[in-house]
Amino acid sequence: MATNTPRQIEAVQKTCRILEFLRDRGGAGVTEIAEELDISKSVVHAHLATLNDENLVVKDGHTYSLGLKFLDIAETVKNRVAKHEIVRDQVRALAEDTGEVVHFGAEENGRIVYVAKSKGEAAVETASKVGKRMPMHSTSLGKAILAEFPEDSIDRIVEQHGLPKQTERTITDERRLHEELDTTRKREYSIDDEENIPGVRCIGISVSAPEVGVLGALSISGPSQRMTDERIENELHEAIAQSANVIEVNSRYQ
């Protein structure tokens, strides 16, 4: 019977699992990889030998780790989203000016992916890191981007990923999410009101470019006692909007 599921190649899936394991561990040997991933040692060795030939992994003694070729791949991907040098500079400057954590993220397959991050002097530590994927409905980055999407696109993302509860304040009702996105459009910025991490509030704003559409979003995150409504409206909104505009203007000339 015909299905709509694309054909999946098991060998490629195993390669991806091995690469992700090396990323998470920082390096590992054949035996460790085979035992942890429940793949035969001979298969793991064959995958690693091929990856080593392609410079995607490097071998030091009996230990394999990710190769520097991923740096070139990463730079290409980051510049596909927006001119990364400009994004990096604006994220860093905004973090220095506000003292908080600043992120730039982009949507991929209905998730937010962190593309850049910088911490100001007063920033609180978070588990976020470049490359990490997060839900859209509970983050200011995600809500800022969702507010730019047509309703049917929002509904598809909700159908695909649901509205999982991250904290006691996470919006888990689709009607409430649409109301929140309407509010975001009217005030021109989004708010994560402790919806992703308890005690942390964030402001987000979308970043777009002509003929391309939404490139991603910027956010500023900090402890709730500092991220008051007054500070967000009177200080942070203007600062983040200016940074978004710099990225947008420069993205026209990619």
TrEMBL record:
Residues 9-68 form the HTH iclR-type domain. This is IclR family transcriptional regulator. Residues 69-253 form the IclR-ED domain. CDD domains: HTH_ARSR. It holds the Pfam family HTH_IclR. PROSITE patterns: HTH_ICLR (PS51077), ICLR_ED (PS51078). GO terms for biological process: negative regulation of DNA-templated transcription. Keywords: DNA-binding, Transcription, Transcription regulation. SMART domains: HTH_ICLR. Gene3D superfamilies: 3.30.450.40, Winged helix-like DNA-binding domain superfamily/Winged helix DNA-binding domain (1.10.10.10). GO terms for molecular function: DNA binding; DNA-binding transcription factor activity.
